[in-house]
Automatic annotation (TrEMBL):
SMART domains: DeoRC (SM01134), HTH_DEOR (SM00420). PANTHER family: AGA OPERON TRANSCRIPTIONAL REPRESSOR-RELATED, HTH-TYPE TRANSCRIPTIONAL REGULATOR SRLR-RELATED. This is DeoR/GlpR transcriptional regulator. Residues 1-20 have a biased composition (Low complexity). Residues 23-78 form the HTH deoR-type domain. Residues 1-24 are annotated as: Disordered.
Length: 285
C-alpha cells in the first residue's frame, strides 16, 4: 500500500534544507567579499567564519565552478583580477575627494624639503600646489606631471626606467637603482587599493617595488587614497610599508572601513572633508 506523507511530517525537512542553503549562500557571499578585501588563505577564511577548512574548500570549489573566483595554492583570488584602468580613465573619478586629499597633503610640505612623488591621479593633484614653492627637490617616476614640474622654479629629478603605459610611470631596475641613491623628507604614494595590515595593492609587482623603495628612503610616508580604496584589493601585487605611514582619505569612509586602520599602531589616519571643488575645464566626471 502506498502511503502519502502527512503535512506535519513533510514540511519540516524542506524548511531545514532551505535554511541550510540560505546559510551557505550567505557564507559564500562573505567569502567573496573577504577575498575582495585581501583575505585569500583557507586557514584565515576558516578562522574568521568559524567553520572547518574543509567547508571553506567546498565553498571555494563551488565559487570556482560558478566562475566567481580562481583557486590558488592554499586560497583563492577573485576572477577578473588584473583589469587595470588607465590614468586618463581614472582622472575624473572621485575628483573632489582627490582634490581635498591632495590639498591636505600639501600642508605637510615646507620649503627646503625633498619629496618623492609616486605616479597616479591623486598624488598628481599635489603638483600644481607644489609649484608655489621656491626651494624644493621633487623626485618622481610620473610622466604625467612632468609638463607642470618643468615650469617649477625648483629641482626636479626624474627616475628613468621602463615605461608602464597604463600608469604613465617608470619602473624596473633603472628606477630602483636611482632610488637607492637618494632620500627624502616625504614620500607621497597613491594606491589602487589599501588593506590594513597588508599594505598597498597594485596591478604590477614592479610598481610595488618602487613604492616600497620610496617609503624606505623617506623620513615620512603618506598614502593618499580616497575612501573607495580602503579595504579594497583589486589586484594581487602588494607594497608592504613596514615603517608605518599616514593615511589621508576623505570623509566618505565608513566606520567599518576605518576600523582596521585605527587598530593598526603603525598607521595614522587623517580624514578630510570632500566638499565641492572647481574642476579644471574639460575634465570628465
Amino acid at each position: 500500500m502506498r502511503h502519502s506523507a502527512s503535512p506535519s511530517s513533510a514540511v519540516p525537512a524542506p524548511a531545514a534544507s532551505s535554511g541550510a542553503r540560505g546559510a551557505t549562500r550567505v557564507r559564500r557571499e562573505r567569502i567573496v567579499a573577504m577575498v575582495q578585501s585581501g583575505e585569500t588563505a583557507v586557514e584565515s577564511l576558516s578562522a574568521m567564519l568559524a567553520v572547518s577548512p574543509s567547508t571553506i574548500r567546498r565553498d571555494l570549489a563551488e565559487l570556482r565552478r560558478d566562475g566567481r573566483i580562481t583557486r590558488t595554492y592554499g586560497g583563492a583570488l577573485l576572477t577578473g583580477h588584473g583589469h587595470e584602468t588607465t590614468v586618463d580613465e581614472r582622472d575624473g573619478q572621485a575628483w573632489e575627494q582627490k582634490h581635498a586629499i591632495a590639498r591636505r597633503a600639501l600642508e605637510l610640505v615646507a620649503d627646503g624639503d625633498t619629496v618623492f612623488l609616486d605616479g597616479g591621479t591623486t598624488v598628481g593633484q599635489l603638483v600644481p600646489g607644489l609649484t608655489s614653492f621656491r626651494n624644493l627637490t621633487v623626485i618622481t617616476n610620473s610622466l604625467t606631471e612632468l609638463p607642470t614640474l618643468m615650469e617649477a622654479p625648483f629641482t626636479v629629478i626624474f627616475l628613468g626606467g621602463e615605461l608602464r603605459r597604463p600608469s604613465q610611470s617608470t619602473v624596473g631596475p633603472l628606477s630602483e637603482e636611482a632610488l637607492r641613491r637618494v632620500s627624502a623628507d616625504h614620500a607621497f604614494l597613491g594606491a589602487d587599493g589599501i588593506v590594513a595590515g597588508r599594505g598597498i595593492c597594485e596591478a604590477d609587482l614592479t610598481q610595488t617595488i618602487i613604492k616600497e623603495s620610496m617609503s624606505r628612503n623617506a623620513l615620512r610616508t603618506h598614502v593618499l587614497a580616497d575612501s573607495s580604496k580602503l579595504g579594497n584589493a583589486p589586484f594581487t601585487a602588494w607594497a608592504v610599508l613596514s615603517g608605518g605611514y599616514t593615511l589621508i582619505t576623505d570623509d566618505g569612509a565608513t566606520a567599518e572601513q576605518l576600523r582596521p586602520f585605527d587598530q593598526d599602531a603603525g598607521v595614522e589616519v587623517v580624514i578630510v572633508p570632500a566638499g565641492p571643488a572647481k574642476r579644471p575645464a574639460g575634465l570628465s566626471t
